[in-house]
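Q: what sequence does this backbone want?
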């Protein structure tokens, strides 16, 4: 083992493990509820979609994905009937991505599933510890990126 290696997984590994675990459960439950045509990668759009619509550039910023990736995901979700593009009333040159009726149903189902997942974790960890854990995750996620010196 080199000096820089440890037996403990680093932040990136732990974050990936949490993401994969949550996504696996979320998308399995969604499939059971009839939303079996969407893949976890669509979460980059679905997790940040708003009932009143959102610009693709905002989805890219919120998800950390390139605009081209978001555009492709929106295309896929539009083909599947989850979203539609509409003119932005504030700027007719821009488009907003709006959930369709099916998209709204998926959003409601996903929110309920996530509440169940979070409640289970809060019960297992203790509500106070879980709230502290989520608060710490929010702080870490919001820290500015600084390249190594």
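A:
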């Amino acid at each position: 083992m080199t000096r820089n290696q440890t037996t403990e997984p680093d932040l990136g590994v732990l974050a990936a493990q949490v993401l994969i675990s949550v996504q696996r459960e979320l998308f399995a439950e969604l499939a059971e509820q009839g939303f079996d045509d969407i893949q976890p990668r669509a979460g980059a759009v679905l997790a940040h979609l708003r009932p009143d619509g959102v610009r693709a550039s905002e989805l890219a910023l919120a998800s950390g994905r390139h605009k081209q990736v978001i555009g492709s995901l929106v295309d896929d979700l539009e083909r599947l009937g989850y979203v539609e593009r509409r003119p932005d009333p504030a700027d007719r040159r821009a488009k907003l991505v709006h959930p369709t009726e099916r998209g709204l149903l998926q959003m409601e189902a996903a929110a309920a599933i996530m509440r169940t997942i979070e409640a289970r974790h809060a019960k297992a960890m203790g509500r106070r510890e879980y709230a502290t854990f989520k608060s710490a995750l929010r702080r870490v996620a919001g820290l500015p990126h600084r390249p190594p010196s």
